[in-house]
Fold:
Amino acid sequence: MAKKILVLGSFVADAAFRAARLPGWGETLMGSGFALGPGGKGSNQAVAAARAGAQVQMLSRLGDDAFGRLARDTWAADGIDASLTENCETPTGSAVIMVDEVTGQNAIIVVPGACFTLRPNDVERAGAAIRSAGVLLAQLELPLDTVECGLRIAREAGVRTILNPAPARALSDQMLGLADFLIPNESEAALLTGLPVESKEEAEAAARVLMGRGAKCVIVTLGAQGALVCAAGADAQLVEAFHAGAVLDTTGAGDGFCGGFAAALSEGRTVLEAARFGCAAAGISVTRAGTAPSMPRREEILALLG
Ligand code: RIB
Structure:
């Protein structure tokens, strides 16, 4: 039986606005749609993994407020174990998301709030749960030392580690060395390496640099092109994106990939199979509005995989 995925990450409430373009400073722009819903990269990836068929446990922190209750309701609806996530006095965070109504592209500002109070000692207290997981899945919406602590506990216990370095921040070689799988998008790979990442060749060059700095396997997500899988001693392999319908909202596509990838990995699929699974999950998610609500169920992913 597949072991659980432990997600060490954020929850925030997403306030998503659709408009024809971004407003300028000092400008008021009429929009065409609004939705308030569950978000945060950690929670989105937890929902994606759970809907893809994995057993998921969430280690985060919430405020004692309406957004915190939204998190718990969201996780309960998808069978995600929230027993490691405590409440605190800091309010739950939120994100403002602007979605281009024509292309589905997005721009985000996130204020992490309560989840950013999660400290390394809190992660250590959850050590037994981390050690009993099959996969630890983390992002960068928590303090860096908190994430590093979780990755280290997992690594020392032989638990596979996945780090989605988003939102992008400079990372030490020590941190990169704790990632069995590092999953940046193009802009994150560019920020981490200082190299341009606009083509498949440039993505591979950046991935090789990140592997030279310690990451074992680097998967650069390339949006509509798919994902480039780079592992030591092997040629880079492009896993093509899936077209599952008209693109409505690309927000959370990377989360769909990471959650789907982690779920497939935890059930024993190879890295390339897991990357295909992740691409299928992401491909469906962009045809729907929102982040966590857009994540597909296992049957939909399997149907698209054929
Ligand atoms: O990856 C998308 C997510 O980034 C959104 O849900 C938003 O909350 C930000 O964290």
Observations:
- Residues 5-23+33-305 form a domain with the UDP-N-acetylmuramoyl-L-alanine:D-glutamate ligase fold (CATH 3.40.1190.20).
- Residues 12, 14, 39-41, 44, 95, 108, 110, 141, 251-252, 254-255, 291 surround alpha-D-ribofuranose (CB under 6 Å).
- The chain has one domain: 5-23+33-305.
